[in-house]
Amino acid sequence: EAQVTQNPRYLITVTGKKLTVTCSQNMNHEYMSWYRQDPGLGLRQIYYSMNVEVTDKGDVPEGYKVSRKEKRNFPLILESPSPNQTSLYFCASSSPLRTGDNEQFFGPGTRLTVL
Amino acid sequence: LAKTTQPISMDSYEGQEVNITCSHNNIATNDYITWYQQFPSQGPRFIIQGYKTKVTNEVASLFIPADRKSSTLSLPRVSLSDTAVYYCLVHTGGFKTIFGAGTRLFVKA
Predict the structure, then answer these.
(1) Which of A111, A25, A106 shows the shortest CA–CA distance to A72?
(2) Count of CB pairs separated by less than 8 Å, A with B
(3) From the CA of B45, how many Å to the nearest CA of chain A?
(4) Are A29 and A94 in contact (CB under 8 A)?
(5) Pairing relationship of beta strands B103-108 and B9-13 according to DSSP bridges
(6) Nearest chain B Cα distance for residue A63, angstroms
(7) Per-residue pLDDT reduced to its tens digit, A9-65
(8) Confidence check: pLDDT of A100 > 60
């Protein structure tokens, strides 16, 4: 089944404790992206990647890191989480160059709470 | 990236046709218009995409006038399960993506 998976789905952590949220897709998509969603603010893009070793900042990259060492994986790293990073996070993938459209496939989301 | 403006919320009844209009006055020549649907605590789901005129698929139609400064998502005969938030996006090639605030559609019995 074609899908985007995220782990963990739920995470409660404390300020300053490094964490990684994994994202994996099995559709051979070139493009992957991370979003955060907060009440009243909609979805905001954190980082995106056009292909392996190619990443770029979205609208809200501060406090986050990403890497794209393999095509299928795009982990989101919070080196020193803070309470304002408490949010619902979504990973997405697509293949805009191959298909010519922008249908992004989203993962199930990761609900992160930073105390 | 073109900014989009949508109504914050809409109400409808089961069986009615719902039209949600999105304004994107500074759309660029190469920009496509894409609509997503999102249920609570789930990731957005692609509904439809178009460049000009009319596009129809099994779930919706998308109407785009000649000047492309707006677009209308049409949902035929909505049901309770269509209650969701609908997002309009305008962008090129799917790289940097900006979601607007979306339109919260509430379908009543």
Answers:
(1) A25
(2) 69
(3) 7
(4) yes
(5) parallel
(6) 18
(7) 999 999 999 999 999 999 999 999 999 999 888 889 999 999 999 999 998 999 999
(8) no
